[in-house]
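Summary for the steering committee. One of the milestones for this cycle was to obtain a three-dimensional model of the protein with uridine-5'-diphosphate-glucuronic acid bound, which we needed before selecting residues for the alanine scan. The sequence and ligand used are listed below.
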Amino acid sequence: MNLVVAGTGYVGLVTGICLAYKGNNVACIDIDEDKINCLQKGMIPIYEPGLEEIFMNTRIKGKLNFSTDYVNAYKNADAIFIGVGTPEKHDGSANLKYVYEVCDKIADTVEKDCLIIVKSTVPIGTNDKIEKYILKNLKHKVNIEVASNPEFLSQGTAVKDTINAKRIVFGVKSSRAEMILREIYRKFDLPIVVTDLKSAEMIKYASNDFLALKISFINEIANLCELVGANIEDVAKGMGYDTRIGGKFLKAGVGYGGSCFPKDTKALHWLACDNGYEIKTIKAAIEVNELQRYKLLKLARERFSTLNNIEISVLGATFKPNTDDLRESPAVDNIKKLLLCNAKISVYDPVGGENLKKVFKDDINIASSIDECIKNSELVFIFTEWDEIKNYNIDNYIKYMRTPIIFDGRNCYDLKILKDKRLEYYSIGRQPVINL
Ligand code: UGA
């Protein structure tokens, strides 16, 4: 079978490489020439642990190629995956512009029967609309059908999440579509859930939004822990042993970021409103997340009478560890607000430096190590729990900073270790350590 993946962003690229790794012939298509040139030369334009290894392995076997020539690729395809972005519009709804651009190209070029498989996260009902749209605009007399195959990969663990996924979802209208999808995934040996199109689309939103809700819930419990003197780490541990609750996604912090949860919560909220319904739990999750994001900044403003001219270090800038992605990162939003306060900011992130430079140009200093970043600073914010930050020697804060005051948005350090240190330490859902 000739498979084509449209879009070489996170979803498209990881999907294409993993499908080829599992023995399929895959052509990855993108309109971005630089990206395709880079991939053709064997370089991966994103930071994703493990991806390069299977990319090399697959290239050697000749199962994978990259091109901007969509005409040739779509013409001969048995199945085309759509893996382009669906960013957020100003009103919170999903922008389907890129999906429809691919649909136009598919309608213009397919010359044989073809299954169009939508990987992009799209609002419920979109797959039906896409099918009608392509059928209406088809240039050649062929049979096409649309199927939904949402992805559940997380950045930083994308390869593992795809190859060892918890489940694969097929939203289909016919047994033929199901058969083709089963053939594509034949070597994955994973649980498969087969549904209609709309249920598959809803599984994706409901899964992401449930996880976002879980994070917002634990963050609110954390806020209450601070007020009543409990410890959120112990509370989450005690809850997580109950398999009905589960220990994952109970990590309190400065809220969720990234290209998915913020967008997908707003999109579901918007979709509900559009259907005359208010989805109260998700609305609350969105509000809680917004407040949580600036929680430490608010605390710092109370601690210091002014942040004007204060030397501030920021450790961790990506929306989570093991990615270079800054999208919807709590760090970026906080840095923007700190700049408005006229603070002098130095930032260290193990891999996000280049992307930070693009966002902030010369407005901030980008340090090349934690030591360099915190030297002489008056306060530190931690926004991402990189291992390097978690394993950093606490005594160095005392050694290098002018005043060792730490606002830790990811609970990187054990309170027991900090309790006798000469510093001030504020974290989430735990009592502060004030020894200065
Ligand atoms: C998320 C989902 O986890 C994937 O299953 C889904 O496929 C993906 O969105 C998508 O729709 O493409 P991702 O955004 O890569 O994946 O990252 P997560 O690991 O889910 O983290 C999202 C945010 O939640 C991060 O900012 C992280 O710091 C935060 N988080 C996560 C917490 O604050 N606490 C936790 O316990 C877990």
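Key point for the committee: The longest strand covers residues 2-6.
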